[in-house]
Amino acid sequence: MTGRTGRDGWADEGVFEVASGVHRIPLPLPSDGLRAVNVYVVAGDDGPVLIDSGWAIAAAREQLGNGLRELGYELPDVRRFLVTHAHRDHYEQAVHLRREFGASVSLGAGEQPSLELLQRADGHPFDPQLRLLTALGAASLAETIAAQVVDVGADPEDWQSPDTWLQDGDIAIAGDRALTVVPTPGHTTGHVVFHDRADALLFTGDHVLPTITPSVGFEPVLSPTALSDFLGSLARVRQLPDALLLPAHGPVSPSVHARVDELLEHHDVRLAQTLGYVGAGADTGLDVASSLRWTRHERRLDELNPFNQLLALAETAAHLDLLVAQGRVTCAIEDGVRHYQAA
């Protein structure tokens, strides 16, 4: 198949050409929150290179195999995985297929601390987030999440280290394409995007998404500068020549610059709203998150499921951290809970 598919049909099963020798294969996810993850197949004489890999579930493996077969390949033909970041829906299947067929795996060097923590597999898988929730005044939500995922631990085998740690400016060769590695910390500390300057393509992973705002603050090693890092990464991508937006979730879109401008505006508005609610008396992260509205449907915090409440609170914390760093908000800790006040 060719074409980009519309905003609503982007997750439909199939193989979609996005540029000469580059195809998008949407792979299913275990939950319907993100609907699917896009894996991009770059053709090469010595085998395809895949950008991101999908979650290691049977349905995703089957669809990836079917898609590669439609392009004239089999799973063992995959030569290399270029992975944008170490979240399960991007990284896990690459590790499994490497174990089985020997393809190499490359990942941004900034992900090393998170992988090292996941490889230890001790403690609750969401320990950093649970501690953050408690500090934000949401101890009851932390207890709910802890109980819901008590039997879901990280398997160290799913988080084996890559063959290659990618550095800023590295050139990854995929077929006849030279892809420049551009670090874009924020969504995760070691997130990278891949820039094909010659053909004006940008494989953006979760850094720039066309219909949703990427989460910040959800990774094993939390960063107090996640939002400022993310905004700086958006600015860096905005300085690159404009390109076709090839995201991990959502439809292919014509302009990276246009979407970056929207994301920057969104966070400007969010920072102003957060500061406004603190000034009006919202004392904790939970108070602020409960005052804000979430998703494009403008939902209240308590209308979200527990996991999405966690993401909302993590993003709220990231905005509060930046406001504190800017000197616009102060933070005092009392009995383990952060209390905020407009400066």
From TrEMBL:
Q: Which residues form a coiled coil?
A: none
Top-level taxon of the source organism: Bacteria
Please report the stretch or stretches of sequence annotated as the Metallo-beta-lactamase domain.
36-249
Q: Name one Pfam family in it.
A: Lactamase_B
What is the protein name for this chain? Glyoxylase, beta-lactamase superfamily II
Q: Which organism is it from?
A: Blastococcus mobilis
